[in-house]
Specification:
Oligomer: single chain
Strand order of the largest sheet: 5-4-8-2-1-11-14-13
Structural class: alpha+beta
Number of helices: 10
CATH topology of one domain: Neutral Protease, domain 2
Bound molecules: zinc ion
Number of strands: 22
Helix content: 25-40%
CATH class of one domain: Mainly Alpha
Length: 492
């Protein structure tokens, strides 16, 4: 469908004739139609990025991929920067840029099944990427003394040439060179630090499959603080040195949380975990589940574990969102509903059923006051981060638990996690697993909760708590963070 549409769109392009065999320029997502590409399967990205004292980038990124069809032309998603050269298998390739697409014509056509490499040399000042799908500016953002990367759902293309859709996961390696004494952190395991004259190069290897939107790179003044999960998963946290003590206290229960969720959902799906508290303030409430290294606004550190449920939420995403990613962005409730409900599970474990019911009753009020009229499973393209998706999704997950009982419910979650591990899933996949495990047709249940505008009343063990919930300003959906976060990089 999309390929047909784009084939027509290509006809007026002047620079070269449309070749007979070209990869698609979209993954066909229903909510973000432009992102992703077809014709190949990305296996690995190797990003070599040199950050100068002003925060500008000089980079070479190499994608290793396998052609899934004959290719005389292929696309990457890429926005901004100056491109110095594009090569395919080491040979210079013709290219052009159009509407966020980097369209590449290899000097020699690629055969179906052929493994190939595309390298892109680029440089320039990274710019925040305004996305109509996200409440914050995406991409590689600078702040005084460093930078961070936040890309969900479509911002990775603003700093890395990539097949920017969750349906094409890949492994990543990062080689980040930063001026001394700054520190670089990225997804995966730190495999080495190289000393240069005035800089250091940090090497990271993220070998587990990752959706592009979960990639991240941080530069700044950070200290590393290590621990380990009860199941032996290494945890490395990065904190700003001036709030190290408070941050270590706030993140002190993360190993216990990892043990708790491994019991409920199955083994933690990646080889490493850890958190980074950015030395930047995005309004005091920003966090993202970037794979194996979730990021947090420094305003989240309070020293009294007040924001602990956000840590729970980002950790739970590693099962729901990261290991099993949305097959289409309209299915984002699978990420956010399950991660938000994980907060309720932690509260129930930590404080009991009544406290959990208060959390759910509050969620119900938030959805009524702030939630969209769209069904949970049919969000508007600019409503991916609506209260209906988060709190509404959590209520639907609780209703599912009450419908099928605890044993079947956790069996469903573990099967969903195991069957779609390192891959993607859609609502239809969850309905199929629920139907199989419950031994009855669960489509009517999902129609009522996921595909209706109005949510039914959620079954609570303590319905009387509803009368004790009053929303405060803190319950309002996040607003655009302060523009102060986007100062220029401080020159050292
Ligand atoms: Zn989330």
């Amino acid at each position: 469908m999309c390929i047909h549409h784009l084939a027509r769109a290509h006809n007026h392009r002047p620079r070269f004739e449309p070749p007979p065999t070209k990869g698609g320029s979209t993954a066909g997502d229903s909510r973000i139609p432009g992102i992703g590409n077809g014709g190949y399967d990305a296996k690995h990205y190797d990003a070599n990025i040199v950050v100068d004292a002003k925060g500008a980038l000089d980079a070479t990124s190499v994608m290793t991929a396998v052609a899934t069809q004959p290719l005389e032309q292929l696309n990457l998603d890429f926005v901004g920067f100056d491109i110095e050269a594009v090569k395919v298998n080491g040979a210079k390739a013709e290219y052009k840029r159009e509407d966020g697409e980097l369209i590449i014509k290899p000097s020699k056509a690629l055969g179906k099944g052929e493994k190939f490499q595309v390298s892109v040399d680029y440089n320039g000042d990274p710019k925040p990427f305004p996305s109509k799908h996200a409440p914050v500016a995406l991409g590689w953002n600078k702040f005084p003394g460093g930078s961070y990367v936040v890309s969900e759902p479509d911002g990775t293309r603003s700093w890395l040439p990539v097949n920017d859709h969750p349906t094409d996961k890949a492994a990543y390696s990062f080689h980040i060179t930063v001026p001394k004494p700054l520190v670089a952190a990225a997804n995966g395991k730190l495999t080495g630090i190289e000393e240069n004259d005035n800089s250091r190069t940090y090497h990271f290897d993220a070998k587990d499959e990752m959706a592009s939107y979960l990639s991240t790179v941080h530069v700044g003044d950070y200290v590393r603080s290590d621990s380990v999960s009860p199941n032996g998963i290494p945890i490395r946290n990065y904190f700003p040195p001036d709030i190290l003590k408070e941050a270590e206290h706030d993140f002190g229960r993360v190993p216990e949380m990892m043990g708790f969720f491994a019991d409920k959902f199955g083994p933690y799906p990646f080889e490493v975990y850890g958190n980074i508290v950015m030395d930047a303030n995005l309004g005091g409430a920003a966090a993202l589940e970037t794979q194996t290294l979730p990021l947090y606004d420094r305003g989240m550190v309070t020293g009294d574990r007040r924001t602990e449920r956000v840590l729970v939420h980002e950790l739970a995403h590693h099962w729901f969102g990261n290991s099993v990613s949305p097959g289409d962005w309209k299915d984002i409730w699978l990420n956010e509903g399950l991660a938000s409900y994980s907060e309720a599970l932690w509260i129930e474990h930590d404080q009991g059923v009544e406290a959990r019911d208060r959390y759910l009753a509050r969620a119900e009020k938030i959805v009524k006051r702030y939630g969209s009229k769209n069904p949970i499973g049919e969000p508007a393209p600019d409503g991916l981060f609506d209260s209906k998706i988060y709190q509404g999704g959590a209520l639907a997950v609780h209703a599912l638990r009450k419908e099928v009982g605890d044993e079947t419910f956790f069996d469903i979650l573990r099967s969903y996690g195991a069957e779609h591990r390192d891959s993607t899933a859609t609502t239809a996949d969850l309905i199929a697993i629920s139907t199989e495990k419950a031994g009855k047709d669960m489509q009517p249940f999902f129609n009522e909760w996921i595909y209706s505008s109005e949510l039914p009343e959620v079954p609570l063990d303590n319905p009387w708590v509803r009368g004790s919930i009053f929303l405060t300003e803190a319950d309002a959906p996040p607003i655009e963070p302060s523009k102060e976060a986007y100062h220029d990089f401080r020159e050292l």
